[in-house]
Design a protein that fits this description.
Layout (H helix, E strand, L loop, with lengths): L2 E6 L4 H14 L4 E5 L4 E5 L5 H10 L3 E2 L2
Antiparallel strand pairs: 1-3, 1-4, 2-3
Bound molecules: copper (II) ion.
Length: about 70
């Protein structure tokens, strides 16, 4: 399944990598595509709990819309 999250606070490639790492820590098989200007994080090929993914991204210091 594919999940789309709205994530605020990503300003550069480092942020994108931090978010990608956080997602992969929850689900190593997840495919992550990020458009930071659109605040869009697409997580494909995942069975992970959306709340767990959001929590991992928040733990890196980014804001995830409900
Ligand atoms: Cu950054």
């Amino acid at each position: 399944m594919t999940q789309i999250l709205e994530v605020r606070g990503m300003t550069c490639g480092h942020c994108e990598r931090a978010v990608t790492r956080a997602v992969r820590a929850v689900d190593p098989q997840a495919e992550v595509r990020i458009d930071r200007t659109a605040h869009r994080v697409e997580i494909a090929n995942t069975q992970a709990d959306p709340l767990a993914l959001a929590a991992a991204i928040r733990a890196e210091g980014y804001e995830v819309a409900e």
